[in-house]
Each structure stands twice: as structure tokens, then as C-alpha cells.
Specification:
The chain is mainly α. The protein has a single domain (18-45, 68-285), classed as Orthogonal Bundle (MetI-like fold). It contains 13 helices and no strands. It is elongated and about 75 Å long.
């Protein structure tokens, strides 16, 4: 019966998504960016790290001095800007996904344990959450990346270990409200294991809430990666990163503002798409409000 009700509910979710403007716009835009990142080798017209100093700082297509083979111009080292923007989407999405996997695994597990068991388990985990909330994310990330060395792996690890608190807080509150529901008490009565109750019964009932947290955290991670790359503590050159591209173009902001405007626009569109899609999916999968 549960399988039949789930199958019957699936078409309604798609119908609701088509009727939700935010989810539709955000999902479409996010899907386009993901496809661009996946097929970057096929879409990029040039090697994103190939330098040609004879063609440095060529303007985009709307300028008179533009050249057809470099649609969005070149940077200060003569690298094709369109190719670097396309490959930069890979870095932003890769860092966002990697950090969410690490932080989500930590935060959701701790939140489930604290909310379901309560008592001293809740007290210890709540203390860990409070300790984490007292730490400034940006300053700790700057120090950790500076000590560990700027690399993609270090960046994902550091941010993943710093951004689990929101998952833990939300999951803990949801687990506390669900553990006293009748279906959970019935599972305890028939002797269901704690692992089954936590991960197969309680966790699936939090999907709407967790999805909202994921959308907020992905956008936050993307902005943090761009900020750290802008400061030279994120992705190492010559790897294309939107934050690094903004940093490299700041010296020419008065004469070639497009060097900052193009990656900045791409960054804004990605964050907007994630937020719109997450907010729309919350409305679609959440409880009906009368």
C-alpha cells in the first residue's frame, strides 16, 4: 500500500513543480549550468589554461576590437574567457557537492542521534553544535587553508568540517518531533532496530527540510569558495575558478570591467538557481498549508 501511494504521489510532484515558478526557473537554470559543467570539454572552444600573450585582454563580442574566435575575449594572460567560465562551473559545482556530502553526512548523523536518543547524547552533541557556532567560519577556513595549503581537496575538507551545524540543528529538531509519532512507537513495539527507525523511517520524513538546508548550504559554499579563491586561498592557478577570475581581473576593473562582470554574473546566476530550486522544492514536498 505504501508503494502504491508513493507511486501515485510522484505525478502530483511533477505537476506541482510545473506550477511552481520558482522551482521551474531555478531547476531549469541549474540543469543548464550542470549540463555545461558536465560537457565542458565539448563546449569549450579553447583550452582554458592555454596562454597567448599576443592576444591578451581582447574584449568580448560587443566591443569593436573583438575577434570571432574569442567570443568573450581573453584575460591578462591571453586565455580564452568563455572556456574558463565554462570550466569554472565545474569547480563551483564540484566544491558545492563535495562539501555538502561531507557536512551533510556529519550533521544529519549527529542530529538524528541527538534528536532520537536525547539525554546525555543530546547534551554532548548540543555542546558540539554550540562550540561550532561560536567559531567564525571565514576566519577558521582562512587559517586552516593557509596552514594546509591551497588545494581543492583541502578546501572541500575544511569547509565540510565547518558547515555541518545547520544540518545537525534542523535534523535534531525534526527527529525530536518525529520520535513520539505513533508509527515510530509502533515500530519500537514490534522490535524494529534503531538503525531502521533512524535511517529508514525518520530520515525519509525529513527530506523536504533537508532539501531546503542543502539549497542554502550549497549557495553558501559556492560563495565561500569564490571568496577564498579571490583571496588566493582556494583553487590554485591556473585552474579556472570564478572567484579566482574575479581576483585576477580586479587590477583592470576600470578599463576592462567585463573581466569581473562575467564571472560575477555567472556566480550570481548559479546561487540564484540553487536558492530558487531549493525554495520551490520545499513548497512542493512540504506539508500542505491550509
Amino acid at each position: 500500500m505504501a508503494e502504491l501511494s508513493t507511486q501515485a504521489a510522484r505525478p502530483s510532484i511533477w505537476r506541482k513543480m510545473r506550477g511552481n515558478t520558482g522551482a521551474l526557473i531555478g531547476g531549469t537554470l541549474l540543469a543548464v549550468i550542470v549540463l555545461i559543467a558536465l560537457f565542458a570539454p565539448l563546449l569549450a572552444p579553447h583550452d582554458p589554461v592555454a596562454q597567448d600573450l599576443t592576444r591578451r585582454l581582447l574584449p568580448p563580442f560587443w566591443h569593436d576590437r573583438s575577434v570571432p574566435e574569442h567570443l568573450l575575449g581573453t584575460d591578462h594572460l591571453g586565455r580564452d574567457y568563455l572556456s574558463r567560465l565554462i570550466y569554472g562551473a565545474r569547480v563551483s559545482l564540484g566544491v558545492g557537492l563535495g562539501v555538502i556530502l561531507v557536512s551533510g553526512a556529519i550533521g544529519i548523523t549527529l542530529g538524528l542521534l541527538a534528536g532520537y536518543f536525547g539525554g546525555w547524547v543530546d547534551m554532548v552533541i548540543s555542546f558540539a553544535i554550540t562550540t561550532r557556532l561560536s567559531l567564525p567560519i571565514v576566519l577558521v577556513a582562512l587559517a586552516a587553508v593557509a596552514l594546509g595549503g591551497a588545494s581543492l581537496t583541502t578546501l572541500i575538507t575544511v569547509l565540510g568540517l565547518l558547515l555541518w551545524d545547520r544540518f545537525a540543528v534542523v535534523t535534531r529538531a525534526a527527529a525530536q518531533s518525529l520520535r513520539h509519532q505513533e508509527f515510530i512507537m509502533g515500530l519500537r513495539a514490534i522490535g524494529a532496530s534503531r538503525a531502521r527507525i533512524l535511517f529508514l523511517e525518520i530520515l525519509p520524513n525529513m527530506r523536504a527540510t533537508i532539501l531546503v538546508v542543502v539549497s542554502l548550504e550549497v549557495a553558501n559554499v559556492i560563495l565561500l569558495e569564490a571568496a577564498l579563491s579571490f583571496l588566493g586561498l582556494g583553487v590554485r592557478p591556473p585552474t579556472p575558478s570564478w572567484g579566482l577570475m574575479i581576483s585576477e581581473g580586479r587590477d583592470n576593473i576600470l578599463f576592462d570591467p567585463w573581466l569581473i562582470a562575467l564571472p560575477g554574473t555567472a556566480l550570481c546566476l548559479l546561487v540564484l538557481a540553487v536558492n530558487l530550486f531549493g525554495d520551490g522544492m520545499r513548497d512542493i514536498t512540504g506539508p500542505v498549508r491550509k
